Amino acid sequence: MKLNMPRHQQIYAWLLLFPALALLAAFTHIPMIKTLWRSFTSSGMQNNTGFTLDNYRYLLEDDVFWQVLSNSLWYAAVTVPVSMILALAMALWVNGKIRGRSALRLAYFTPTILPMITVANIWLFFYTPEIGLFNNILGWFGHSGYNWLGDPDLSLFSLMLMTIWKEAGFFMIFYLAALQGISRDFYQAAAIEGSSRWTTLRRITLPLLMPTTLFVLINAFLNAFKLVDHLFILTKGGPNNATNLLLYYIYENAFSFFDAAYASVLTVVLLSILVVLAVFQFGVIERRVHYR
Amino acid sequence: MFNRGKKRMLAVVLSTALSGAAQAKTDLTMYYPVAVGGSLTHVVDSIIADFEKQNPDIDVKAIYAGNYNDARVKALAALQSGQPAQLSVMFSIDVHELMDLDAIIPFDEVATSDEDKTWLNSFYPALMKNGQVKGKTWGIPFQRSTIVMYYNKDMFRAAGLDADHAPKNWDELVDMGKKLTKKDASGQVTQWGAMIPSTGYPYWMFGALTKQNSQVLMNQAGTETYFDKPAVIEALSFWKSLGSEHKIMPEGTIQWGTLRQNFLEQKTAIMWHSTGNLTAVKKSANFDFGVAMLPANKELGSPTGGGNFYLFKKSTPEERQAALKLVKFMTAPEQAAKWSIETGYMGVSPAAYNTDALQRYVKTFPPAAIARDQLEYATAELATHQAGRVRKLLDDAIQATLTNQKSAEDALKHAQQQAERVLKRFE
Amino acid sequence: MSFLNIQGLSKQWADTRVVEDINFEICEGEFIALLGPSGCGKSTTLKMIAGLETPTAGNVILNGQNITNRTPGQRQLSMVFQSYALFPHLSVKENIVFGLKARKVPVNERNKRLRHAVELVNLGDQINKKPSELSGGQCQRVALARAIVSQAPLCLMDEPLSNLDTKLRNEMRTEIRALQKQLGLTVLYVTHDQVEAMSMADRIILLNAGRIEQMGSPQALYNEPASSFVARFIGHPPMSLMTRDKHLIGIRPEHITLCKSGYSEGIATHNPNKNPNNNASVIHCDYHGADTLISVDFQGSALMLSLQGHHLFQAGHPLAITWESQHEHYFSAKTGLRTANL
C-alpha cells in the first residue's frame, strides 16, 4: 500500500507519531541495543572491557542455563495450550444459557484480578505438604499426598498448574467477548443445514474465533516468558533449578550474582526467543486468520 | 534598660542564625531491609526520630527497601545513578562483593579516636566474623540472628519426653524425633519429628550442620570453599538421612516460607529457624513451646545471619562522621536492647544484654537469651567473592541431594569444582 | 392434500403473546407470503416452523409428518436469512456445500448439486471468493444457492430482500419467483413489504398482532379486504376510510375521479349543499411522475386520490370529486370486519 500524502500532511503525521516513537526508543529500542552491545563488551559488573565472546562461551558451558531454557520451553509449551483450551471451554460454557452464569463468569475471572504475588502466597499454602489444601483433599481418599514444590519431578508441574489457573480466566474474557460478537444467524443457519454441535464448533465457532485466538496466543506466550513473580514466593527456582525459568535466571544473575554481563547475554537469548515467536505468529498464523 | 535588653536579644538571634548558616545540616540517606514478616519499619523510624532529636544538625532519611536482595539492589542502583546514600543496612555476607565493587570503606578509616576503637571492639566477636576482611572492619552488626531450635513442649510431654530437655546432639535428635513422629491407622504421618527448611536459605541451615561437624564452609578471605571436605559430605548425608532413613522429617525440600505455619499448626514437633521469628512465634503459638540451642555432633554450632551497617565510599568526610554517629547510636546498648525485644533479633553487644530492659525481658521470656548463649559457638555465614553464585551452587547441591537426584558426595564435589572455577580470579 | 399444515401454533414470552393460535395449510409448489407490519409475529412463526424457536403450543406437520419436536436439521427444509448468514471465513463454494458436508453427502453428488445451483443463480466465476468480496445481491444469490443444493422440499425465506436497494430488489423478486417455479419449490416468504407479497406470492397470509387477519390470493386481499386493517395495509397508496354512523366506508384512491367541468351525477348523494363544483378542498399534493397523489378534506374526512399527470394545487384549493358506489367497501366501525354493502 502506498500513501500519497501531501508533504505538509506527512510532516504532520510524523509530528503526531513523534512522542510515542521517542518514548519507545528511549525505553525499549535503545536499552535493547545497549544490552546487545554489553553482552559482547563487558565482564561481570565492569563495562567496556573490550570485545569478547567469553560471556557467550560461558553460556554454552552453563548447565544451569540449558536446564533453565528447557524448563522455560516446557513451561510455555504446556501452560499456553492448556490455559487456552480451558479458557475456550469455560467461555463456551458461560456463554450458554445456564442459570447463574454471571456468578460463574465472576468466579472464573477472579484469579485474574489478583496480583501474581498474592496468588503465589495463597498457593504456597495450598501446596505445603502437611497443612496444604491439596494434600488434605488427597488425604480424604487415603492418599499420602505429594511434596508439590519440593519434589523436582513435580515442582515445575505445580507451577504450571497455578499459572494455568491464573491465566485461563483472563483469556476466557477475551473468548467470551468474541463469542458474543458472533451473530446468532450463523448458528441458526448451521442448525438448519443439519450441522452437529461438533461440526458447528469446528467449522464455524473456532474459525470465527481465530483473531482472538491469535491475540490470546501471543499474550499467552509472552506471559509464559515474562511472568516469574510467583517464583520469588514459591520456589526461588528450586529445588536444584527444577523450576528456574529464563527471566528469573536473568534476575538472579543481574541482582544476586552481580553479573550484569552474563545477564545481558541471557537477555539477548530471551529477546531472540520472543522475536522468533512473534515472527512465527504474525508471519505464519496470521495468514490463516480471517478478520471480519 | 529595656532598649539594651532588646539589642542583646537581637545579637543572640543573629549569632545563632549565622552559626546555623556556617555549619549547615548534614543530610544522610540510609537504606534498610526487613527480611522476616512484621511491621518492623516503625521500630526503625522511632529509633531514627530519637537520633535526630539528639543530633539536630543531622537529617536522616531512612528508606525501607524490601528484603536483603532488594535493599542491595536499590542502594547500589541509587549510588550508580548519582543519588546520595552514605550508609545502608545490607546482608552481612555481601561484604566481599561490595568490596569488589569498590562501593564501601572500612570503619577503621572513620572510627579513629580511642573511644571509637573501643566501640569497634564492643560487639560479640562471632557477629564480627562476617564483617572483618583483610584485618579491617567493613560491617557493623545490626539486625543479626542465628538459627535456633523451636520445639513443642506439649508434644514432648505427649511422647513421654522431658519437656525441658531438647535434643542436645544428633543422636538425640534422631531418637526423640522417632518418638515424636506419629502416624495414623493408614500409615500416613500426621506429625513429624523435625523440620529443617531447605528452600530460601538452604546454605545457611547447612552451615549449622557443618559447624556442628567441626567444619567451616569457607576461609575468612572468601576466596576458598570447602564443600567437598568429608565432614561436609557427612553433614549433608546426615540431613538427608533424617528424611530417607530415619523418617522423622518429610523427604524432598521443606519450604522456608511455610515452615513457621507448620510449627504453629503442630505438624512438626521441632523446627530449625531464624531467631528473627521468635517474637512472631511467641505471639501466635497456642501451645507451650521452648527454644534451645541447635544440637551438637562434634561440637555446638550455628552460623550467624542477618544485616550489617556499611559505609559507602561516595561521601564527604562530614557525612562519614555523621554516618558513624548514627551507626554508633543505633548499635548502642539501649537501642540494641529495644530492637531485640521488638523483633527477636539479638542484642549485638554484651552491654545490650546488661541493660535493665533486656535483662528484665530475658527474665520473663528466657528463650530470648538462647541466641546470645549460642553465639559462643557461632561461626560466620557463608560469604565469598561472587557470593550469589557460590551460594547458589551450594543451594543446588543441597536440594539435589535432599530430592534424591544426586548423592551427597557427587553433589558437593560438583559444587566445589564449580565454586573453584568461579573463585579462581580472586586468589 | 396439504404439504405443510400449521395447527394452533402459539408462542408466549413471559406475559406477551407473540403468536396466537395460527392455523394454515400450504400445498406443494405454492409460494406463500407471510405479510405483516413489524412485530406482528411473522418471523417468530417462521422460526417455529424452522425449529429455531420452540412453540408454546401447536403442531407443525410437514408432508404428513409431525415435525414439531424435531431439530432444525432433521426437518428437511432450507432457509434464507435477511442477513444472508453467510460464513465470512468460508469461500462461496464452501458456504454453499456446508450443509452437504455436514450431512455427509458424497463428493460426486455434492459437486453435481453445486454446479447446478451455481448455474441457476448465475454465480459461475465467484465461487472461490469470500463473502466480503461480494455485493449484497451476490451474497443473496449465494444464500439462495445454499438453499437450493439442500434439495429440501420446503424453503423458508426471512425478509431476504430487505437489505438490498430498490432496483436490485425488483430484479431479485422476479428471479426468485422464476427459480421457485422452475424448481417446483414450496416457499414460505416472510416480508413486511406488501409490494413484494403482492407481486410474488400465490397466496398471502396477512398477520396482525400475532393473529391471521386474512389469507388469500393477492387479488382477494386487494379487492375484498376482510377488515379495515387489511384495507389500510394493502394497496399503495392505501384505501381511505371515512366514518359514517356505525360504519367505515372505504374507497381506493384510484377509484376517485374529478367531475368533468364541475359536473357529475354521483355528486348529489354526497353533497347535501348541492354545490356540484366544490365538495372537497386540497390538503397536500405529492407528485410521483406518472401520477400525482392528492389528499383532500372531504366532509371532515381525509381522502386520498391519484390523478394521472402533473397536478399541483395550493392547499385549500376547492375540488369536485366523485366515485362509483360499486367501489365502496363497508366495515363495521366496532369490529373493523367487512360487512355487506348498504
From TrEMBL, chain A:
<feature type="transmembrane region" description="Helical">
    <location>
        <begin position="261"/>
        <end position="285"/>
    </location>
</feature>
<feature type="domain" description="ABC transmembrane type-1">
    <location>
        <begin position="69"/>
        <end position="279"/>
    </location>
</feature>
<feature type="transmembrane region" description="Helical">
    <location>
        <begin position="106"/>
        <end position="126"/>
    </location>
</feature>
<feature type="transmembrane region" description="Helical">
    <location>
        <begin position="73"/>
        <end position="94"/>
    </location>
</feature>
<dbReference type="InterPro" id="IPR035906">
    <property type="entry name" value="MetI-like_sf"/>
</dbReference>
<dbReference type="InterPro" id="IPR000515">
    <property type="entry name" value="MetI-like"/>
</dbReference>
<feature type="transmembrane region" description="Helical">
    <location>
        <begin position="156"/>
        <end position="178"/>
    </location>
</feature>
<feature type="transmembrane region" description="Helical">
    <location>
        <begin position="12"/>
        <end position="33"/>
    </location>
</feature>
<keyword id="KW-0812">Transmembrane</keyword>
<keyword id="KW-0472">Membrane</keyword>
<feature type="transmembrane region" description="Helical">
    <location>
        <begin position="204"/>
        <end position="222"/>
    </location>
</feature>
<comment type="similarity">
    <text>Belongs to the binding-protein-dependent transport system permease family.</text>
</comment>
<keyword id="KW-1133">Transmembrane helix</keyword>
<dbReference type="Pfam" id="PF00528">
    <property type="entry name" value="BPD_transp_1"/>
</dbReference>
<keyword id="KW-1003">Cell membrane</keyword>
TrEMBL record, chain B:
<dbReference type="InterPro" id="IPR006059">
    <property type="entry name" value="SBP"/>
</dbReference>
<dbReference type="GO" id="GO:1901982">
    <property type="term" value="F:maltose binding"/>
</dbReference>
<feature type="coiled-coil region">
    <location>
        <begin position="398"/>
        <end position="425"/>
    </location>
</feature>
<dbReference type="GO" id="GO:0055052">
    <property type="term" value="C:ATP-binding cassette (ABC) transporter complex, substrate-binding subunit-containing"/>
</dbReference>
<protein>
    <submittedName>
        <fullName>Carbohydrate ABC transporter substrate-binding protein, CUT1 family</fullName>
    </submittedName>
</protein>
<dbReference type="GO" id="GO:0015768">
    <property type="term" value="P:maltose transport"/>
</dbReference>
<feature type="signal peptide">
    <location>
        <begin position="1"/>
        <end position="24"/>
    </location>
</feature>
<keyword id="KW-0732">Signal</keyword>
<keyword id="KW-0813">Transport</keyword>
<comment type="similarity">
    <text>Belongs to the bacterial solute-binding protein 1 family.</text>
</comment>
<keyword id="KW-0175">Coiled coil</keyword>
<dbReference type="Pfam" id="PF13416">
    <property type="entry name" value="SBP_bac_8"/>
</dbReference>
<dbReference type="GO" id="GO:0042956">
    <property type="term" value="P:maltodextrin transmembrane transport"/>
</dbReference>
Automatic annotation (TrEMBL), chain C:
<keyword id="KW-0067">ATP-binding</keyword>
<dbReference type="Pfam" id="PF00005">
    <property type="entry name" value="ABC_tran"/>
</dbReference>
<dbReference type="Pfam" id="PF08402">
    <property type="entry name" value="TOBE_2"/>
</dbReference>
<dbReference type="InterPro" id="IPR047641">
    <property type="entry name" value="ABC_transpr_MalK/UgpC-like"/>
</dbReference>
<dbReference type="GO" id="GO:0005524">
    <property type="term" value="F:ATP binding"/>
</dbReference>
<dbReference type="GO" id="GO:0055052">
    <property type="term" value="C:ATP-binding cassette (ABC) transporter complex, substrate-binding subunit-containing"/>
</dbReference>
<dbReference type="GO" id="GO:0140359">
    <property type="term" value="F:ABC-type transporter activity"/>
</dbReference>
<dbReference type="InterPro" id="IPR013611">
    <property type="entry name" value="Transp-assoc_OB_typ2"/>
</dbReference>
<keyword id="KW-0547">Nucleotide-binding</keyword>
<keyword id="KW-1278">Translocase</keyword>
<feature type="domain" description="ABC transporter">
    <location>
        <begin position="4"/>
        <end position="234"/>
    </location>
</feature>
<dbReference type="InterPro" id="IPR017871">
    <property type="entry name" value="ABC_transporter-like_CS"/>
</dbReference>
<dbReference type="InterPro" id="IPR008995">
    <property type="entry name" value="Mo/tungstate-bd_C_term_dom"/>
</dbReference>
<dbReference type="InterPro" id="IPR027417">
    <property type="entry name" value="P-loop_NTPase"/>
</dbReference>
<keyword id="KW-0813">Transport</keyword>
